[in-house]
Design goal:
Amino acid/polyamine transporter I; mainly alpha; about 475 residues; globular
Length: about 475
């Protein structure tokens, strides 16, 4: 963050995040790790197979289209303002600062819930590697807490070691996931006993017999993609900070789409629909067992555990920078904007994220003692939160670059038409899902929004943040030329 005397500018911060610390490839891996493809497949394999009536591969590729369009909106906005507050800053400066605050709050809430949904399965996955299982919550609590503490320490030490850790994990995780996806395809095409045969309906939007629910299927697919925008939250530490984070976001979405589609098609038919649904809480391990036996099931459990570890590590890094970006404008307590002189990381914000993840993990596991019947609610809530701030971010790009909309046909398509289409699709999904959502999901979202409104009022009238008097901005001469930094 830099010092400025303009209205609404962040206050002086004594120490900056480390500039030029990582490159575009490492940033892409961070975005992919935050999306956690293996965990996403693990949590949604059975859900998506059911919702899409086995048309999940097509649904994933269709969902990738609005994701790439919105990633391009992130890219354009980052060219304008490369700030780790990202959508909070962009929506606030382009549309309205109050809406910007709520966008930031939805970002933080959705990201923490997404990281937690992954952390909840770490204990069972780790125990499965060693052929163990337990009904007691304590092994799960201890394993989850240990990983949060270790990844928190790495996040505090620096972005460079975080990036190196993520690359190392990604190599092993993705080799295992792709290997099993290919093995699953061979298994199904070979008509092995117990497998579910591929038909042409697998490649239609409504799946087998036209029984797929497109809205629910896209919602599950959105959950699988969520997190790719993590590339822009570390933009202040990326080489060529205005250009590379946006490129990394688009590359992350494209690679994730291929991984997810291949894995969904390759694995969903390895067992019968009934058995897949009965074992939905451990779908990937169950499928791996069916393909290669219990030994290979442990290998898949290892990939899941690595994916959770990677997601937890990037989650802490990214959520800390979201909070740091907001606190720099005094909409959150200002000590959260402090950066360590030794490590060049937002230590207090990182510690807060680690504490929240640990506290919620303990509270949930001690209260329920079980992981069953929770993930469908988590998938829906996280997806709806992400849809909301994806839409707001895309609109911020349209509003900021509005002078370009009618300058020529190409800009009309790229700046307005495609983002509006992506927003319309996601808004339709949100509307359809909320129409039939259980009361628990709706009240959870109402509670999150309500807490955000209270925090916003506190920031405005108690902390008296200057962010709420920030002047709105718009592009004057077209998309800015990328700066070298």
């Amino acid at each position: 963050m830099t010092e400025s005397t303009t209205a609404g500018a962040p206050p002086r911060v004594a120490q900056r995040l480390e500039p030029d610390a990582i490159g575009v490839a490492q940033d892409t891996v961070i975005g992919m790790a935050n999306a956690a493809p293996t965990v996403s497949i693990g949590l949604t394999l059975a859900v998506l197979a059911s919702a899409a009536a086995y048309g999940g591969g097509v649904i994933i590729l269709v969902t990738a289209i609005p994701m790439i369009i919105i990633a391009n909106s992130y890219r354009r906005l980052n060219l304008w303002n490369a700030n780790c507050g990202a959508s909070f800053e962009w929506v606030g400066r382009a549309i309205n600062p109050y809406l910007g605050f709520m966008t930031g709050w939805l970002m933080v809430s959705g990201s923490i819930m997404g990281t937690l949904s992954a952390a909840l399965v770490l204990g069972p996955d780790t125990l499965a590697v060693f052929g163990q299982s337990t009904t007691s919550p304590w092994p799960n609590i201890l394993i989850g807490t240990a990983v949060i503490v270790v990844m928190l320490a790495i996040a505090i030490v620096g972005i460079k070691i975080t990036a190196r850790t993520q690359v190392s994990i990604a190599v092993v995780e993705y080799v295992i996931l792709i290997g099993f996806a290919v093995a699953g395809l061979v298994f199904v095409l070979g008509h092995h006993h117990g497998s579910f045969p591929i038909t042409k309906d697998w490649f239609s939007l409504t799946g087998i017999g036209g029984h797929g629910d497109i809205a629910m299927a896209i919602l599950a697919a959105v959950f699988m993609f969520t997190g790719w925008e993590g590339t822009v939250y570390v933009n202040e530490e990326v080489k060529h900070r205005r250009v590379n984070p946006g490129r990394a976001a688009i590359m992350a979405v494209a690679i994730i789409a291929i991984l997810l589609a291949v894995a969904q098609v390759g694995l969903q038919g390895a067992v019968s629909p009934g058995n897949l649904q009965k074992n939905s809480s451990a779908g990937l391990v169950y499928v791996a067992d069916a393909i290669g036996g219990s030994g290979w099931g442990k290998v898949m459990a290892l990939a899941l555990a690595l994916s959770v570890i990677a997601c937890t590590g990037t989650g802490i890094v990214i959520e800390a920078r979201m909070i740091y970006g907001m606190a720099s404008h005094r909409v959150l307590p200002t000590f959260l904007a402090n950066v360590s002189r030794r490590f060049a990381t937002p230590v207090w914000a990182s510690l807060l994220v680690g504490f929240l993840l640990t506290a919620i993990l303990w509270a949930y596991l001690l209260a329920s003692g079980s992981l069953l019947n929770v993930f469908e609610d988590v998938i829906a809530i996280v997806s709806l939160l992400y849809i909301a701030f994806y839409i707001l971010t895309a609109f911020a790009a349209i509003v900021y670059y509005r002078r370009r909309v009618f300058s020529n046909a190409w800009d009309f398509i790229i700046v307005a038409l495609l983002p509006l289409g992506a927003c319309a699709l996601l808004a339709w999904v949100m509307f359809k899902v909320l129409q039939t959502a259980p009361a628990g999901q709706i009240w959870s979202i109402v509670g999150i929004v309500g807490v955000g409104l209270l925090l916003m009022l506190s920031a405005r009238f108690i902390q008296r943040s200057p962010f709420f008097q920030i002047p709105l901005e718009s592009d004057q001469v077209g998309e800015p030329k990328p700066a070298s930094r």
